[in-house]
């Protein structure tokens, strides 16, 4: 039992790759842009949601259902580095800023985004 707690604690202290990524449709170049503090976990979650027909973005889900997984790419646009002094633990503002920068860059390139539905 102690080993299990130890492994959980180690996992919580791991530094997961964080940054900005897109899910891009090959058919029309539309994309879903996201920033996250755990790239691998977010990729897996989106893939699971899309595969289970449960993604909250209905426009993306509809295209996924019509075109299939093979017509989409998952791309990391930029990874955010951890501070060297390790005192910083909240990177949400940094990720928000990185998201805005990439949103501007992609918009300037004429990339369209899947609309967010509330």
CATH architecture: 3-Layer(aba) Sandwich
- Total tally of structural domains: 1
| Straight-line distance between termini | 43 Å
- Shape annotation: flat
Per DSSP, the total helix count is 4
CATH evolutionary superfamily = GIY-YIG endonuclease
Fraction in helix = 40-55%
Structural class call reads alpha+beta
How many extended strands? 3
**Average pLDDT number:** 90
Q: What Rg, in angstroms, do the CA atoms define?
A: 17 Å
What name does the CATH topology carry? GIY-YIG endonuclease
Notes on the protein architecture:
This protein has helices at residues 2-13, 39-51, 58-67, 92-108, and strands at 18-25, 31-36, 72-80. The chain is of the alpha+beta class and 118 residues long. The chain has one domain (16-108): GIY-YIG endonuclease (3-Layer(aba) Sandwich). The chain has a three-stranded antiparallel sheet with strand order 2-1-3, with helices on both faces. A hairpin with a 5-residue loop joins strand 1 and strand 2 (31-36).
Supply database-style keywords.
118 residues; alpha+beta; GIY-YIG endonuclease; three-stranded antiparallel sheet; 4 helices; 3 strands; 19% strand
Concise synopsis of the structure shown:
This protein has 118 residues and is α+β, with helices and mostly antiparallel strands.
Describe the secondary structure blueprint for this structure.
Layout: H1 2-13, E1 18-25, E2 31-36, H2 39-51, H3 58-67, E3 72-80, H4 92-108
Antiparallel strand pairs: 1-2, 1-3
């Amino acid at each position: 039992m102690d080993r299990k707690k130890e492994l959980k604690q180690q996992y919580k202290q791991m530094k997961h790759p964080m940054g900005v990524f897109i899910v891009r449709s090959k058919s029309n170049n539309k994309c879903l842009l996201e920033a996250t503090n755990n790239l691998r976990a977010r990729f897996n979650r989106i893939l699971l949601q899309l595969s289970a027909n449960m993604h909250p973005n209905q426009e993306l889900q509809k295209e996924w259902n019509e075109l299939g997984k093979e017509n989409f790419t998952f791309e990391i646009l930029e990874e955010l580095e951890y501070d060297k002094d390790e005192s910083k633990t909240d990177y949400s503002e940094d990720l928000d800023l990185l998201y805005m920068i990439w949103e501007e860059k992609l918009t300037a390139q004429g990339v369209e985004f899947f609309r967010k539905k509330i």
